[in-house]
Specification:
The protein is of the alpha/beta class. The protein has 7 helices and 34 strands. It is elongated.
Length: about 525
């Protein structure tokens, strides 16, 4: 019996058929634990991914709100809306996000930072760790507001090196902007030791290093979107310009004086729409109130010949973009009406001088004191040349240049020329829409003209040009001093060269500023963290 028991025990000791079962039993806790941990980690990853996407979109939405003046104070609300809109799995257990402004890349509060957490207890990790798990996500989006730039000097050639060149000891301190559409490596050049305080310097290409080293101006190179502000305009050609005329100094026109009373009324209206042509009325409760000045009286003032007693209205309309986009773009229309009343009109016969009426001229070589009557003057092939010893005046005039025509103003001239306004243009048959676009244009070179290298302005303190000078195919040389009295001077030409001791420190009369837009940059938003 004992022998049989011993044999049975020995037989069992040599058996290994149950090893696998034993190993499975011993490894089962690890297998179950690994599966449980894998399930929980999958949940954490899904929550983290969703929460990170939500804060990313939240930061971007907040940044876009901050990039627009009209919505900048709503960035937290917009960010929170976007955060909540992108939650699903963590919607029931996330904490409210922290939304704030933050500095980025040396800027001051130029980004929106969003952080959020989500906390929840899962069965397996709770068993192992004895608590809940918290997921954290953070995002930061930088923003740059869009900007609109104007300029009083614009070089239009798209390829020329030194399209705008500032030379000699010239002084350019008007702080109303310089711009060049040229994509050349040095679109704006300096040749000498000028004094420059332009406010901002813009170029589709590069800008001379001298300007970077010697000015505090804002310099923006390699810009996209710079454009010819008058590129879509066509010169007017009313019926009066169809008359071919010649210039002579056979007689001076009579002079007329009157007691003049002037009242200026400004009306503000508000619209919305993608552009001013399809804009409809908008009730802007925060809009500006209409104004009307006290009467201004001048006795025995020199007035245009033909003036009669009574009241004359001169109206101009200006549209200003207030912001928004698409059909929600907001506009302010400013209507300025000048009521001029003439009393005690006296006509005094004149002596010998030039007598110039609107029409078409092959040449206008000024050879005596000359007064231009209001209207449009076509110059075909020749030039308007004003030498230094004569006095030349003209109010509400526009010179249109064809077939290589040019303008040459010599130093020492007493020149006072003022551009036409919308009401003046409509009075000679220009449509209201075109008149509003062309208002303020003193010189308009036709784009089909071959241009000229003879256009020069060498003025002095008595050279006054009020209005825009547009030479899309000609280069313009400036030397001397040019002043303004009633309107801003804006110069846009293929190339611009400022030489010698040119002093261009005033482009606008007091209280006015150049408002011709040459580029509008879009707002920029970038996810940076």
């Amino acid at each position: 019996m004992i022998t049989r028991i011993r044999r049975h025990i020995a037989k069992m000791a040599g058996c290994n058929s149950g090893n696998a079962t034993l190993l499975v039993a011993l490894g089962m806790p690890v297998l179950i634990g690994g599966a449980g941990l894998g399930v929980d980690m999958t949940q954490w990853y899904m929550w983290k991914r969703e929460l990170q996407f939500a804060v990313d979109q939240s930061a971007i939405a907040g940044a876009w709100a901050r990039a627009d003046e009209e919505t900048e104070n709503t960035y937290q609300r917009r960010a929170l809306q976007e955060f909540n809109a992108n939650l699903s799995a963590t919607d029931d257990f996330n904490n409210a996000p922290n939304i704030s402004l933050a500095d980025y890349a040396g800027g001051n509060l130029n980004s929106v930072a969003v952080s959020a957490t989500a906390t929840k207890t899962l069965p397996f990790t709770n068993f192992l760790m004895g608590g809940s798990t918290t997921i954290y996500a953070y995002a930061q989006a930088s923003f740059e507001e869009g900007a609109t730039f104007t300029s009083c000097l614009v070089a239009l050639d798209e390829d020329e090196t030194g399209a705008l060149t500032i030379g000699g000891n010239s002084v350019l301190t008007a702080s109303c902007g310089l711009a060049a559409l040229s994509t050349a490596e040095e679109a704006i050049s300096v040749n000498g030791n000028p004094t420059v305080d332009a406010g901002w310097i813009l170029a589709a290409g590069g800008v001379d290093q001298w300007l970077k080293d010697n000015t505090d101006d804002v310099i923006l190179e390699n810009m996209e979107g710079l454009y010819d502000p008058f590129g879509e305009l066509e010169p007017p050609n009313p019926d009066e310009t169809q008359v071919e005329r010649t210039y002579s100094c056979s007689a001076e026109p009579d002079s007329t004086t009157a007691d003049v009373t002037t009242v200026t009324a400004v009306e503000y209206d508000y619209y919305q729409g993608s552009n001013t042509r399809n804009a409809t009325g908008w009730a802007n409760t925060a809009g500006k109130e209409d104004t009307r000045t006290e009467p201004s009286y001048e006795a025995a003032k020199l007035v245009p010949n033909g003036t009669v007693e009574g009241t004359v209205e001169s109206r101009s309309v200006q549209w200003r973009e207030l912001g928004g986009s698409g059909q929600n773009k907001k506009w302010e229309r400013v209507t300025t009406t000048v009521y001029t009343t003439y009393d005690n009109v006296i006509v005094t016969p004149g002596a010998q001088a030039g007598s110039v009426r609107p029409g078409t001229y092959s040449d206008l070589q000024i050879s005596c004191d000359t007064a231009f009557a209001p209207g449009v003057y076509n110059i075909v092939g020749g030039g308007l040349k004003i030498p230094g010893q004569y006095e030349v005046t003209g109010s509400a005039v526009m010179f249109v240049l064809y077939d290589g025509a040019y303008i040459d103003v010599t130093g020492g001239s007493d020149v006072n020329l003022t551009a036409m306004q919308a009401s003046d243009l409509m009075a000679v048959g220009v449509s209201q829409e075109d008149a509003n676009e062309l208002a303020g244009m003193l010189v308009f070179e036709d784009r089909s003209s071959q241009g000229s290298n003879k256009t020069k302005f060498n003025g002095n303190a008595n050279t006054v040009l009020n209005g825009a000078l547009y030479f899309p195919t000609s280069g313009v040389d400036f030397a001397g001093t040019i002043g303004v009295t009633s309107q801003c001077l804006m110069i846009a030409s293929a190339t611009i060269t400022i030489t010698g001791t040119t002093n261009m420190s005033t482009f606008c009369p007091g209280g006015s500023s150049e408002d011709t837009t040459i580029v509008s940059t879009a707002a920029k938003v970038r996810l940076v963290a």
